[in-house]
Specification:
Blueprint: H1 2-10, H2 12-17, H3 19-30, E1 36-41, E2 50-59, E3 62-70, E4 76-83, H4 97-102, H5 106-110, H6 117-136, E5 141-142, H7 144-153, H8 160-170, E6 178-179, H9 180-188, H10 191-194, H11 209-219, E7 227-228, H12 229-238, H13 245-255, E8 262-263, H14 265-272, H15 284-287, H16 289-292, E9 301-305, H17 313-320, E10 326-331, E11 343-347, H18 350-357, E12 371-374, E13 380-385, H19 388-395, H20 400-409, E14 412-417, E15 422-428, H21 430-446, E16 448-453, H22 459-463, H23 468-477, E17 480-483, E18 489-494, H24 496-514, E19 517-522, H25 528-532, H26 537-546, E20 549-553, E21 565-570, H27 572-603, H28 613-642
Antiparallel strand pairs: 1-2, 2-3, 3-4, 5-6, 7-8, 9-11, 9-12, 10-11, 13-15, 14-15, 16-18, 17-18, 19-21, 20-21
Helix pairs in contact: 1-3, 1-6, 6-7, 6-9, 7-8, 12-13, 20-21, 23-24, 26-28, 27-28
């Protein structure tokens, strides 16, 4: 380990030629003054050559060696080299002895101090710490929880509260986040050994993370999951910290490291849990007790955000009474007394709270959607990055998968896909969100993706009007199908079996589309109305039964038959089937329509509700199509028997 670390930093010339050879030279540097001979086979980079080094070991702080490159027989080129011990010096070189003799800096290099073993060990430790940091950090920094995880990986135990107390020492920015350089310097200076002696942050003046989230929700007036400068000022005044405008602006600017004019909850909590900006203020728990104090009645209370700001308390009470009997509504107005659209609603029983949870993200007014949270239970939204292509796998056919996940976990699940983000939104208490995400990961792991080539020009017909064709394919196969815009790609998500079935269905449909043609059948114009039906009921039934597209033309649009035509687009079999069914419908529909109308008239007052014209047509067409399908099915069987 020491050799590898030293080679990366101090021997760039040697490592670029052969890491193994450089490691051998380094071993010689530590071996004392004894002469050494060491053969070494190094395949790969040096093309399978064998190396051996013979030297006098350490002499006056230098290593003098002879390197032979060649086969094991001993034949090959020989080169004398002189290595100075200053392995960390940028002047270290590897080359012929003659070249060293001509160098003006030879004395400086040869007389450089030898490497200390403790320095080498320190370098190895630094590499280890930095490697672990990269595995934990997000955006090149960690908060108190990340530091705890790092210390555990390095063999040290510490609580998040204790770490919060020493983050001030680590972080120069005062944001509650620590960079890699800051953490590494602190750790190598022995910070981990002293952490047991560190005092925790004063708990009497601090809130838990769940309590802090509740406070964050209250301060976040517009519900965009971030606190802007104005909302931050509200927070300061709410807690009576006594800051002037300059102090508030300076703290906000220090925390807004991205320069976007807003703080996320992670930024807010990292600062809040470590900073001394709040030490001179009142107890935060006491200052927010009137809002966040846990009570037995919390199970009957909900926190609302996004309600219309013009609606008074009475309107809010009447609105939420649909969930259950409302006991009390407490408006959380802005500093100037104006309605903020936030409130706490107290119901008479707990069942009403569960009913209210169903209204989360309910579209209301111009403010977007309503947000409904339980009080003091850690209820919130959590965003997980999930690509849009995988949303279908998590939703399932007709929402079956997501409905089952919600039933099993108790969490509410939503999906959002825009040019800004593609996410799965988990809403609920911590354990509910955690369980839902575990289930989602299991589903995603079992739902892989196959990519197939499907001509872009066929995508529209494979999707169908209103997505009906694609939906039918998905329902039949259990897979999720995505056609990529402006490409020839078709993505099929699902289990191995579902993907195979879906692709076979797609191929069959593509074959059918390639072999479809437009066929014109003679149908007199006087029958067009009957075959179209009231509100298109007849032609829709024809198309659903056969899978073909049907339309009727008369006059100049008729190309082959002047009295009128039925134009059918589909495979030859589909076209003939439509024509056969049309002839049967022309024969059966008039009598069926008459019978239904006469029956409706005969029943008169005995029928509770008279049939409308659309209902009469629907019943008649259903019966006629049933007769046609039965006759055509019998004819098909007869033909197969004859063959």
């Amino acid at each position: 380990a020491v050799s590898e670390s030293l080679l990366r930093v101090g021997l760039p010339t040697m490592t670029s030629r052969s890491p193994a050879l450089a490691a051998l030279v380094l071993a010689a540097c530590f071996c004392g003054s004894a002469a050494f001979t060491a053969p070494l086979r190094v395949p790969g980079r040096m093309h399978g050559s064998a190396f051996s080094m013979q030297g006098t070991g350490r002499s006056g702080g230098t290593v003098c060696a002879e390197v032979r490159m060649g086969g094991e027989s001993g034949a090959g080129k020989k080169k004398k080299v002189v290595l100075g011990p200053g392995l960390f010096s940028p002047d270290i070189q590897l080359g012929p002895e003659e070249k060293w003799k001509k160098s003006e800096d030879m004395d400086t290099v040869l007389n450089a101090p030898a490497v200390k073993a403790e320095d080498a060990k320190m370098l190895v430790e630094k590499d280890k710490v930095e490697g672990l940091f990269d595995g934990v950090a997000e955006g090149g920094k960690v908060d108190a929880r990340g530091v705890v995880s790092l210390l555990e990986s390095l063999g040290h135990q510490a609580s998040e509260q204790t770490v919060s107390g020493v983050l001030r020492e680590m972080s120069e920015s005062g944001t509650g986040f620590v960079s890699k350089d800051e953490f590494t310097a602190w750790y190598l200076a022995g910070g981990a050994g002293k952490i047991a002696e560190a005092s925790e942050m004063p708990g009497a003046k601090r809130m838990t993370k769940d309590e802090c989230e509740s406070l964050f929700q209250l301060v976040d007036v517009n519900g965009d999951s971030a606190i802007d400068k104005e909302e931050f000022n509200t927070f300061e005044k709410m807690l009576e910290l006594g800051w002037d405008e300059a102090k508030s602006a300076a703290v906000f600017a220090r925390l807004d490291t991205e320069g976007v004019g807003a703080l996320t909850f992670e930024q807010f909590f990292a600062w809040y849990s470590t900073t001394d900006d709040l030490d001179n203020g009142p107890s935060l728990k006491k200052a927010t007790a009137n809002i966040l104090k846990p009570e037995q009645g919390d199970r009957k209370r909900i926190f609302i955000r996004g309600f219309p700001t013009k609606a008074p308390e009475a309107v809010a009470s009447r609105f939420f009474s649909r969930c259950g009997a409302v006991e009390h509504v407490r408006m959380l107005n802005l500093e100037d007394g104006k309605n903020s659209g936030r409130m706490i609603v107290t119901f008479e029983d707990e069942d009403a709270v569960e009913n209210a949870m169903e209204m989360h993200r309910f579209r209301i007014g111009k403010r977007g959607h309503l947000e409904v949270y339980r009080v003091n239970e850690g209820d919130k939204e959590e965003y997980k990055d999930v690509k849009k292509e995988m949303h279908g796998a998590l939703i399932g056919i007709k929402g079956s998968v997501v409905q089952n996940m919600q039933k099993e976990t108790g969490a509410k699940i939503f999906f959002e896909a825009s040019k800004y983000r593609q996410v799965m939104i988990l809403k609920g208490r911590p354990q509910e969100r955690a369980k839902a995400w575990v289930m989602a990961q299991e589903i995603l792991a079992g739902n892989l993706c196959d990519t197939h080539k499907v001509p872009n020009k066929m995508h529209g017909r494979l999707i169908g009007s209103g997505g009906k064709v694609k939906m039918a394919m998905q329902e039949q196969s259990g897979a999720h199908i995505v056609y990529k815009k402006e490409t020839d790609e078709c993505l099929v998500y699902g289990t191995e079996e579902a993907r195979a079935v879906a692709w076979q269905i797609i191929k069959d449909k593509m074959w059918a589309l390639d072999h479809t043609k437009e066929t014109r059948f003679p149908v007199e114009g006087k029958y067009h109305g009957m075959l179209t039906g009231k509100q298109g009921v007849t032609v829709k039934a024809l198309q659903e039964s056969t899978g073909a597209q049907v339309r009727f033309v008369t006059g100049k649009k008729s190309k082959e038959h002047t009295d009128g035509e039925m134009v059918v687009r589909g495979t030859p079999v589909q076209c003939e089937r439509v024509n056969g069914m049309a002839q049967i419908l022309i024969r059966e529909l008039p009598s069926l329509l008459s019978e239904l109308r006469e029956e409706d008239i005969a029943l008169g007052a005995l029928r509770s509700l008279p049939l409308s014209a659309a209902q009469v047509w629907k019943l008649a067409v259903q019966k006629a199509v049933g007769i046609a399908e039965e006759e055509l099915g019998m004819n098909k069987k007869e033909e197969e028997g004859k063959q």
